[in-house]
Structures are given as structure tokens and as C-alpha cells.
Write a structure and sequence with these properties.
The structure holds 2 protein chains of 2 kinds. By secondary structure, chain A is an alpha+beta fold. Chain A has 10 helices and 8 strands. Chain A has 3 domains: 111 residues, Acyl-CoA dehydrogenase/oxidase, N-terminal domain (Butyryl-Coa Dehydrogenase, subunit A, domain 1, Orthogonal Bundle); 108 residues, Butyryl-CoA Dehydrogenase, subunit A, domain 2; 139 residues, Up-down Bundle (Butyryl-CoA Dehydrogenase, subunit A, domain 3). The mean pLDDT of chain A is 93. By secondary structure, chain B is of the alpha+beta class. Chain B has 2 domains: 168 residues, Butyryl-Coa Dehydrogenase, subunit A, domain 1 (Orthogonal Bundle); 148 residues, Butyryl-CoA Dehydrogenase, subunit A, domain 3, CATH 1.20.140.10. In chain B, 59% of the residues lie in helices and 13% in strands. Chain B has 11 helices and 9 strands. In chain B, helix 4 packs parallel to helix 7. In chain B, 58% of the residues are buried. The chains are: A alpha+beta, B alpha+beta. At the A-B interface, helix 6, helix 7 and helix 10 of A face helix 7, strand 9, helix 8, helix 9 and helix 11 of B.
């Protein structure tokens, strides 16, 4: 057991810290979604120019071949610097690694470079109105017509769809096969008449996500990824890539939010009240446990090739802590925290999504119970 | 970075686990508890194996290892709920080895050899009180060494161990290293207690059938088990981090040990209470063994001091760090 970083890891962290200090992303555009996205896209271009857009990608595709720990360090430093997640985060974290594993040489050649540069943005067409936690029951249909596939159906929670050139789309290509076997993974061009994007306004009031209405969209046969009928396996690759690095970014954002609250409580003198200090300390405890447990997961991934049992816990811990933190902020600051435009009001509302997005807490508990604790399949 | 036990530490854990599985069955723990005595034979064996001095330098007859290795042993002893006076002596030895007060090592030598027993905890209640010739107690923010204290045994709800009020004797103040080690040791024992409570619960809910199915297939049950797992792993993350800090990052010990204490108190109470609940009616009987774990956890948590106290300390330390950074 050694919780110090290696010299190589430390040097990488310092290099990043220096890079982020030199590369101020500038004022975050707050009111305009499009300007906000452009801000993130421009920042990704700067990262890409210095080979930092996807440090975990192998060098032959423009990455740094960073280890799992180094990748976590990247997201920690990104979060700490206040810089935004790259605009093409789904391309970099999900589409890229999935294409690297399942794609043909031609597909790798065609898609990877524009993901890295941010030239082509990607979105993820997995969830449907009737297929959330039970993803494999999805109904969007893919029918083969000559040399192409014709897709019809509806997807939901597709963030960034309005900016996307491509969609990682999972659809049912064989309705007669068992539900996990009848799926195919497509790389679908978003710029066609058969694809309509409608913003989905969420409880914060802003449309961070979209609905996709797909009606007769065309996908050439060469845009199948990983083979016909193999969509579930390919989709699992995407899902497994979803949490690893991002967990560290989110963990640091939570840290920043908590630091802001503690500083506010210290400035107002509220921290002198033992009840306030105890509650802040409890949140500090949860944030630290999350950080340490995430590090245990990193070690397990590096040593054994997959996260250990603790890997199933961090997303659950993060969402719970973020919800507790934002709720306590409102308690501490009082009703003015709920005034429209107060940043804590946004954080409070946004946090409700934390225990739903990327796997609900209830599903995560099922996963822990069945896969980690070996309990019988739940009912 | 490597946040995992080393091969040697894993070996120590597995040897300790196997030994205690054989020598400290619940039947034995129960026999000792019902007669309110220690398992002296097992105790002598552990001393001979060098467990008491694992975190003491070789120059004082110890094993020359550190707090992580001691935490591994304490976790396994907690798992077994073993009726031996190990905690008091081994932790006192580790604490004195980290301080300068016993530079000559006279106390250390007698603790390692088992010749002298020690109590640890609070002045009002210290673990392993019976026959203690030395006590290390946490008195508010500081740790206190008592040589030849007056020991007044108190029968508690946990009869697997002797507890006592300790007072008087020759008293000297100890530093953060000693205080931190006492907290980390209690936390480590609690990690083991939690793991055992979880394991017993999982075995039970897979076996016990109602409505024609194992009760573990009901989400009301399986989700509670998942919560018990989360608490246990949280305490484990915090405790092993703190044990590592004691060995390798001494400046972090006050904060790390407060974190370990808080996480272990929360886990100890939640997980052992959950174990009784998930066992249903049988869990409330004297016959089922889960209550030994609940009782040990209650005492360990009480000795760690109030949960809120550690949380206040964590909040204040974080505020100070932020102020210093500005």
C-alpha cells in the first residue's frame, strides 16, 4: 500500500497544472446554450492542439497512452482548474474507445481523428421512453433495405444531440431474437431528414438533453459497429467506459462546491455553531470517503484489469453526497438560496438528476446486491 | 499509487483469518463471554506469534512493521470477535513506539512479550481493563499515558472483552501519533466486525426462505445489504488510508484518524444493526451470534467518542485549510 503518486504521475500532474494555468478558458458564458457549447468546443481544440484532448487514447490515435491513474489525474486537474469538460466528451470517452475496440480499420481511420479535434460531435442514442433501466428492451427498429438500414423509433436523454454529427445508436434489428441478441449498434449520421432533435427542458428550466425522433433514417451497412446482432456487447463497452474518468471530474466538482460552502460558512461565522460545523464535517467525511474509494477502484483497475467491488459504489456515493450537500446549502443560506438565478438553486435542482442519470441508485443497489454480494436476482 | 494491501499484507491477513477461523469460533467466543473470561490459550499463542509487537521496531523485540499491518490483524480479530486482550496491549505498544516517551523501550518490551497488559479507550471506559498495568486513554483532544493506573472493572453489554474505568497512576501526556493510533485501531476492529456482520447476513438471507423464495431476493432486503456493504467499504477506505498515513504521512494523522473514526462509528452502528434486522426474529435471540457483533460494535463506537465530535473536527480542519490556502 502506497498512496503517494509515482514520479511519473506527479510529473504528469505538474505538466497539466502548468498547462491549465497557461490556458485560461475565459469567462463561462452563462445564459446562452450555443455560446456555452462553442466555449467548450474551442477549449477542446486547444487541448487537442497540445495532445491533451484524450490522454487515455493510445498514441497512434492521438492520445498519450495514459494509464488509468494518469487519466484520473487529468480529470482531477481539469476539474480543479475550473475548465469545462471537452465539448465532445461523449465522443472522447465513449464513442472513441468503443470504435477502437470494435471498429474496422476503415472505421477507425474515418471517425477517430474528428472526435479528437472536436470537428465532429457525438451523441448517445441508447435510452428510450420505455427503455431506461431495462435498456435491452429498447424498441427502435432497424430494417435492412438493400445495402442500407432504415431506422425508426424514439430516443431520449441525448445530450448534445443538437450539435452532433454522429450518434451511437442501438436499435432492434431482429425482433424475433431474444431481447439481448436482436440488437445492432449503428453509427448514425444526424444530418438527415429522418432525424428530428427536440430539446427536452429539465427541472432546472434549461434544455441540457434532447429527444430524438427517428423516422426512416438511413444508415449504410458499413456503419454497423461490431457486427449485426452484436449490439448489446458493443453497447456494454460503451457503458463500461462511461464512468471511469468522469468519476474523478465529478468528485473534484463536488469538492469545489463543498469548499465554496465551507468558505461561505466561515465568512458568515455560521461555522462557529457546532451543528453547522458537524454537518459540514459530515459532508467533508462523505467527500473524502468518495475520493479514497475512487482511488481504491483505480488501483483495482490497474492491477486486475477491472474495478473491484468498490467500483460499483462511487457513483452512488457521489450522487448521494451531492444531493445532501446542495440541500444543506439551502438550509444554511436560507430562502435566498432558492431565488431564481442563485447558483445554489440551480445546483439543488440539477442534483436531483444525479441519482437517475448513468444508472439509477436503485439499479446500482441491484448491481451491488447481485454481482458483488451474490444475492439472488431481485424481484 | 497503490491503494491495495501488498502481497505480504495480504499474506498476514489470510494467515490471521485462517488461524482465527479455527481457534476462535463463535462457540469459543460464546463460552468465554458467558463466563466473562478471556481465551488465555489463544492469547498466549498470539503473543508467541509476535502479533502484539507487529508495529514495534525490531530493536524492541517487535516485528518492525507498521500500522497497516496492525490494522490488518485487528480487522481479523474484530471479524472473529475474539475474546483476547489484544487490542489494549498491541495498540499501546504501537502508540508508544511512535512516541518518544519510552525511548528506552522498557514498557514496549513488556507489552510485546505479553508480560504487561494494557487498556485503551477513555478514562471512563477502557477496553482490556482486566489486569492492565498501563493504560492509554483519550482525554478530549489529547492522549494520556497512565502507568500502573487504578483499574475498576465494569461489566458492559459486551462480555467478550473486559472493560474498566482507569484513573490515577503516573500520568504523562502523549502526542497526536498516539491519539491517532488508538482511533485507527478501534476503527480497524470495527471494519472487521462489520465485514463479519455483513457476511453472516448474506449467508442467512440466501438461505432463509419465505413466500417460497430466499428472502435475499426481495429488494427491501437486498438493498439493505447493499447499504451495509457501502458502509463497510466506506469505513475500510477511511481506515486503511489513516493507517497508511500513520506509517507514511504523519502530518495527516489528526485529520485521517478523525475521518477513520467517523466512518467506522457510522458503519459499526448501521451494519451490525442491519445484521440483526436482516436476521429477523432469530437475530434477536441469544442463540444467534450476531448480537456479539452488535455489542462489540457498540462498545468500540462509544470508545471512539461521539460521531459529531469527529465530524466537527473534520469541518474545522477543512475550514482552516481553506483559510490557509487563501
Amino acid at each position: 500500500m502506497d498512496l503517494t503518486f509515482t514520479e511519473r504521475e506527479q510529473a504528469f500532474r505538474e505538466e497539466l497544472r502548468e498547462w491549465f494555468a497557461r490556458n485560461d478558458p475565459g469567462q463561462e458564458p452563462e445564459s446562452d446554450e450555443d455560446l456555452h457549447f462553442k466555449w467548450r468546443r474551442d477549449f477542446q481544440a486547444r487541448l487537442a492542439a497540445d495532445g491533451l484532448a484524450a490522454v487515455h487514447w493510445p498514441p497512434e490515435y492521438g492520445g498519450r497512452g495514459a494509464s488509468v491513474t494518469e487519466s484520473a489525474i487529468f480529470f482531477e486537474e481539469l476539474g480543479r482548474s475550473g475548465a469545462p469538460l471537452p465539448a465532445n466528451v461523449l465522443g472522447l470517452l465513449l464513442a472513441g474507445p468503443t470504435i477502437m475496440l470494435w471498429g474496422s480499420d476503415r472505421q477507425k481511420e474515418r471517425y477517430l481523428a474528428p472526435i479528437l479535434s472536436g470537428e465532429e460531435i457525438w451523441c448517445q442514442g441508447f435510452s428510450e421512453p420505455d427503455a431506461g433501466s431495462d435498456l435491452a428492451s429498447l424498441k427502435t427498429r432497424a430494417v435492412k433495405e438493400g445495402g442500407e438500414w432504415v431506422i425508426s423509433g424514439q430516443k431520449v436523454w441525448t445530450s448534445g444531440a443538437q450539435y452532433s454529427k454522429w450518434c451511437m445508436l442501438v436499435a432492434r434489428s431482429d425482433p424475433s431474437a431474444p431481447k439481448h441478441r436482436g440488437l445492432t449498434y449503428f453509427l448514425m449520421d444526424m444530418e438527415q431528414d429522418g432525424v428530428q432533435v427536440r430539446p427536452l427542458r429539465q427541472i432546472t428550466g434549461s434544455p441540457e438533453f434532447n429527444e430524438l425522433f427517428i423516422d426512416g433514417a438511413r444508415v449504410p451497412a458499413e456503419n454497423v459497429l461490431g457486427g449485426e446482432g452484436n449490439g448489446w456487447k458493443v453497447a456494454l463497452t460503451t457503458l463500461m467506459n462511461e464512468r471511469a474518468g468522469l468519476a474523478f471530474f465529478l468528485q473534484v466538482r463536488l469538492r469545489q462546491l463543498l469548499d465554496r460552502l465551507i468558505a461561505q460558512a466561515a465568512a458568515s461565522g455560521a461555522i462557529e455553531q457546532p451543528l453547522v460545523a458537524a454537518r459540514l464535517g459530515e459532508l467533508q467525511m462523505r467527500a473524502e470517503i468518495l475520493r479514497l474509494t475512487a482511488y481504491r477502484g483505480l488501483t483495482a483497475t490497474e492491477k486486475y484489469g477491472q474495478p473491484g467491488p468498490e467500483g460499483s459504489l462511487t457513483k452512488w456515493m457521489w450522487s448521494q453526497t451531492n444531493q445532501e450537500l446542495t440541500q444543506f446549502a439551502v438550509d444554511l443560506i436560507g430562502p435566498e438560496a432558492l431565488a431564481e438565478g442563485n447558483p445554489w438553486a440551480y445546483e439543488l435542482l440539477r442534483a436531483r438528476g444525479n441519482s437517475i442519470e448513468g444508472g439509477t441508485t436503485e439499479v446500482l443497489k441491484n448491481i451491488v446486491a447481485e454481482r458483488v454480494l451474490g444475492l439472488p436476482k431481485s424481484r | 499509487m497503490d491503494f491495495d494491501l501488498s502481497d505480504q499484507q495480504k499474506e498476514i491477513k489470510s494467515v490471521a483469518h485462517d488461524l482465527l477461523t479455527e481457534r476462535s469460533t463463535f462457540a469459543k467466543v460464546r463460552a468465554c463471554a458467558e463466563e466473562r473470561r478471556y481465551d488465555e490459550q489463544l492469547w498466549r499463542e498470539l503473543v508467541e506469534l509476535g502479533w502484539t509487537g507487529i508495529a514495534v521496531g525490531e530493536e524492541h523485540g517487535g516485528g518492525g512493521l507498521g500500522m497497516v499491518e496492525l490494522a490488518v490483524l485487528l480487522e481479523e480479530l474484530g471479524y472473529a470477535c475474539a475474546a483476547v486482550p489484544f487490542l489494549g496491549s498491541a495498540v499501546s505498544a504501537a502508540a508508544l513506539a511512535a512516541e518518544t516517551i519510552d525511548a528506552g523501550g522498557e514498557l514496549l518490551a513488556t507489552l510485546v512479550s505479553g508480560e504487561r497488559r494494557a487498556a485503551v479507550g477513555l478514562p471512563s471506559m477502557a477496553a482490556d481493563g482486566a489486569g492492565a498495568g498501563l493504560a492509554i486513554v483519550i482525554d478530549g483532544g489529547r492522549a494520556l499515558l497512565m502507568r500502573e493506573p487504578q483499574v475498576e472493572e465494569v461489566a458492559t453489554v459486551d462480555p467478550t472483552r473486559s472493560y474498566a474505568r482507569v484513573s490515577g497512576g503516573a500520568q504523562s501526556a502523549l502526542g497526536a501519533a498516539a491519539r491517532g493510533r488508538v482511533l485507527i485501531a478501534l476503527a480497524a476492529e470495527l471494519v472487521g466486525v462489520c465485514q463479519r456482520a455483513l457476511d453472516m447476513t448474506l449467508a442467512y438471507v440466501k438461505e432463509r426462505r419465505q413466500f417460497d423464495v430466499p428472502v435475499g431476493s426481495f429488494q427491501a432486503v437486498s438493498h439493505r445489504c447493499a447499504e451495509m456493504f457501502r458502509f463497510t467499504e466506506s469505513a475500510r477506505s477511511a481506515t486503511y488510508y489513516a493507517a497508511w498515513a500513520a506509517d507514511a504521512a504523519e502530518e495527516a494523522i489528526a485529520e485521517a484518524s478523525a475521518l477513520a473514526a467517523a466512518a467506522a462509528i457510522e458503519a459499526g452502528r448501521e451494519v451490525t444493526a442491519g445484521a440483526i434486522q436482516m436476521h429477523g426474529g432469530i437475530g434477536f435471540t441469544w442463540e444467534a451470534d450476531v448480537h456479539w457483533l452488535y455489542k462489540r460494535a457498540q462498545l468500540d463506537c462509544a470508545l471512539l467518542g461521539p460521531l459529531k465530535g469527529h465530524q466537527v473536527a473534520l469541518g474545522e480542519l477543512a475550514a482552516q485549510r481553506l483559510a490557509a490556502a487563501r
